[in-house]
From TrEMBL:
Known cofactor(s): Fe(2+)
UniProt name for this protein: 3,4-dihydroxyphenylacetate 2,3-dioxygenase
Cross-referenced PROSITE patterns: EXTRADIOL_DIOXYGENAS, VOC
Molecular function (Gene Ontology), one example: 3,4-dihydroxyphenylacetate 2,3-dioxygenase activity
Length: 336
């Protein structure tokens, strides 16, 4: 088997959205992302810390779905490695030469990975102006950068092994007596580039966008409330057990879930050890034991194949939301 591509980080997501103007209001006016390019077909957005062309592409389409996730790889040769790695595993693979794929991105390869998720691997990408200290342009949620993806898949152990084969570390897990319910996997030295959530899939559960400060997470909730748009707030604000991050979950106009997320921790030492949570610990999902709204477990975005067709869904065999533990808030009996 060929060597895995050297993945640097989760780099951008392309979402199909049904109303570009409504999406622009949510992602630009409310989240404060910067427009690198826009036309009648798509918006190319980035956070204030991001020096590459975009981290979110919103493509006008009749049906809302995930077009693809994208990982940046360390060198151009890693695009070739990715093509070989996935072809050898029998995955659908399509080379996307520079100028034929997503605006701003160079030579790339797109695959449907073993979990059924459409993923692009690229190295070359156009640069954007340095906005890190353009505080005059920071607004709304003041999103700094894309931090992670969260995907729903019915076989977490298999998904864990797949991402380990790509060289990802595992920062934290949620485990039952015999079951693995969730895992957080990283290449960049933070808690995750991708989280694996048990459930029917493949689905995109959410995109995690990082801010620098917890007050920006609180401000995000306040501005949605101030505008009478509180229905876009789904869960939180709160403090995660897993990752220790401060968070609020939003739903965009198409229902795509976005987490505004800050203050997780460093995972870059070679001997980092996975932190394991028991599924019966009601601090795992919310460190203060707050309930997790059922929609957070039950709703997610469908994903496309390489031709833009919706992928079939496989059912899962575990249901964490059925665990009668404080943090899930579903008919919960608090421990005495
Ligand atoms: O709810 S969890 O504490 O499991 C959690 C941790 C980190 C995340 O990014 C997340 O979306 C959810
Ligand atoms: Fe997240």
């Amino acid at each position: 088997m060929s060597a895995a591509p050297d993945v640097v980080r989760s780099a951008y997501v392309q979402l199909a959205v049904t109303d570009l103007a409504a999406s622009r209001w949510f992602w630009v006016d409310m989240l404060g992302m910067h427009v690198q390019h826009e036309d009648e077909d798509a918006l190319y957005l980035r956070g204030s810390d991001e020096l590459t062309h975009h981290s979110v592409v919103l493509r006008a389409a009749p049906v809302a779905a995930l077009d693809h996730l994208a990982y940046r790889v360390r060198a151009p040769e890693d695009v070739d490695r990715a093509e070989r790695f996935f072809a050898e595993r029998g995955c659908p693979v399509r080379r996307v030469p520079a100028g034929t794929g997503t605006r701003g991105v160079g030579d790339a390869v797109r695959v449907v990975d073993p979990l059924g998720v459409p993923v692009e691997f690229f190295h070359d990408i156009a640069r954007g102006e340095r906005l890190i200290q353009r505080y005059d342009l920071h607004r709304g949620a003041q999103i700094a950068r894309l931090d992670h993806y969260n995907i729903c898949t019915p076989d977490i152990p298999a998904a864990y092994e797949y991402y380990r084969s790509l060289g990802f570390g595992c920062s934290e897990t949620i485990e039952g007596e015999h079951e693995l319910y969730a895992a957080w996997m990283f290449r960049k030295p933070t808690v995750h580039d991708v989280a694996l959530t048990h459930g029917p899939g493949p689905y995109l559960h959410h995109i995690g966008m990082a801010t620098h400060e917890s007050h920006q997470v609180l401000h995000t909730a306040d501005i949605f409330g101030a505008l009478g748009k509180e229905h876009h707030i789904e869960r939180g604000p709160g403090r995660h057990g897993v990752s220790n991050a401060f968070y609020v979950y939003l739903r965009d106009p198409d229902g795509h879930r976005v987490e505004v997320y800050t203050s997780d921790y460093f995972t870059g030492d070679p001997d980092y050890e996975t932190h394991r949570w028991n599924v019966h610990d009601d601090r795992r999902r919310d460190f203060w034991g707050n309930a997790v709204i059922e929609s957070w477990y039950k709703e997610a975005s469908p994903v496309h194949d390489l031709d833009g067709r919706l992928q079939p869904i496989a059912e899962g065999n575990l249901d964490e939301s059925s665990i009668k533990v404080g943090a899930d808030g579903l008919g919960i009996v608090k421990p005495s």
